[in-house]
Amino acid sequence: MSYVDVNGKQIEVDEDGFICDPDLWNEEIVRCFARLEGVDELTDDHWKVIHYLRGYYRQFGIAPMIRKLCKETGFNLQRIYELFPSGPAKGACKLAGLPKPTGCV
Amino acid sequence: MKSPMRLAKAEDVRAIGLAPAAEEERKPRLLAKLKELRGSMRSLAVMLDTCVKCGNCVRQCHSYLGTGDPLNAPPARADLMRKLYRRHFTLAGRLLGRITGAEDFDAQTLDAWLTYFYQCNECRRCAVFCPLGVDTAEVTIAGRHLLSELGMVPRFMQQVALNLQKTGNNMGIPKPALLDSVEFLQCEMLEETGLAVKIPVDQAGSEILYIPSSADFFTNVDTIIGVAKMFHALGASWTISSAVLEAANFGLLFNDSAMRAHNRRMRQAAEELGAELVLQGECGHGWRAARLCTEAASGPVRFRLMHVLDYTARNLGRLALRRLSMRVALHDPCNYARAGDLIDEPRRILRACVEELVELAPNREETFCCGGGSGILMDEMMEIRLKLGKKKAEQIQAAGRIDYLAAGCSICKAQLPHVAAHYGMPDLAIGGVMDLVGKAMDMNRSTGGV
């Protein structure tokens, strides 16, 4: 396992850089992960996606369907990729502190 | 060359019911398991005994052509197991050793197996061009199974197997999340068509149990939408099962016991729901496992087993389809074309759904793999995956301008966008066959509906 330093605190991440314990997630971690994911500035649009994913994950224990994410946030897939260059499953889920979606994706 | 592929840790391997071997235990266990397989998997002994090194398959293997690595040529790959087999299980090999190609287990054996059995997509194209019918995929399947019996499992496969154990699907979708997704999709279809198109879940007494790919509930929603619209138009009695929301069977790709366990999930769900017909969704290797292994894994079953593309092709006359103004190329997934008997069906469906169907060359049973086949979808393998996808990319480029690439398999759907983007086709639309059925259907004119 490796660790990411978030303002002096060591946060454990898996080999793909996803947080190991989703309960440790907080906004400081988002800011730190954002730099690692190539997101220079976190705008209101970023936070809208992150908070939606976070809320869905807390309710259902998994990421929502991509189409639902787009519909509920009002952003099309192209806009999601502009916000999170590595995409909704890798970039956005990582910043929102979800486990990495796996399977045929 | 050591593979960049990550392996699961010992405790994670134990969590999916496999037992890691200590270093000194590896050789004896590998040989004992190989001996067992030699008795139970007749095809393996035939493949190991038969090759005459004519070289016909070498120029036909996309893995060798894409990576340029001589150890990815099919005879070299099979030799990784063959030399050990000769050394221990043939008289000539035991007596004469190296001059018969026999070699013993050494410090490099397992690294080489992990590297090269996970750079073979199990596509079986080599077998089509082999004058003796040697199928290297059989050796790769056995090699990966033996590695798993030593506790050497790719982390990606272990995560999928753990999700399967917990939820019955690769993505780990729990039932409440599935119900939420189904409700969302039903609203989407109502908005689009004005009709209450349903996706029934766990409905006992349904005639048809439909087994989708779990990726249909994450990235490939148009595939399940197409299927739901078709069933609606036909007035079919159908359901999905929250216990087996997965047409894929990754057990085929890394461990035989896991393959059997997932196959039995299908049988159990079908029997509990009382389904007469089980329809498998858009997944290549899953169809191969269901079609070829059900009887061995689950014994005689009471239901009929069919693929959704076959079912759709048989019912085309009852669906009101308007041809979409598109130029569509068809990618034949390896497991449909070389193991699944699904060659004409997708073509008949697409001809009814789009104005122009383009054939890639070569195609049908000579199709090239997308490069992700057999579950080589790990992020850390991306550089190799792109090399494995090179031949497919060349084929797509040669087809000229196309509006859509139809690939009726979730692994292909996950792999091909990376291949397309890397080889200069970032805007190519890629999706399933049933997606286009859904888009081409005139829901208000289809007959037989409820």
Features:
heterodimer; A: 105 residues; mainly alpha; Arc Repressor Mutant, subunit A; 2 strands; 10% strand; B: 450 residues; alpha/beta; Fumarate Reductase Iron-sulfur Protein, Chain B, domain 2; Rossmann fold; 4-stranded parallel beta sheet; 51% helix; globular
Q: What would you note in describing this structure?
A:
The complex is a heterodimer of chains A (105) and B (450). By secondary structure, chain A is mainly alpha-helical. Chain A has one domain (2-95): DsrC protein, C-terminal domain (Arc Repressor Mutant, subunit A, Orthogonal Bundle). Chain A has five helices and two strands. Chain A starts with a strand and ends in a 10-residue tail after the last helix. Chain B is an alpha/beta fold and 450 residues long. Chain B has three domains: 19-152, Fumarate Reductase Iron-sulfur Protein, Chain B, domain 2, CATH 1.10.1060; 163-314, Rossmann fold; 320-440, 3-Layer(aba) Sandwich (Rossmann fold). Chain B is 51% helix and 8% strand. Chain B contains 22 helices and eight strands. In chain B, the strands form two sheets. In chain B, strands 2-1-3-4 form a four-stranded parallel β-sheet. A four-stranded parallel β-sheet of chain B has the order 6-5-7-8. In chain B, helix 12 (221-234) links the parallel strand 1 (208-211) and strand 2. In chain B, helix 5 packs across helix 9 and helix 16 (308-314) crosses helix 18 (344-353). At the A-B interface, helix 3 of A face helix 10, helix 11 and helix 21 of B.
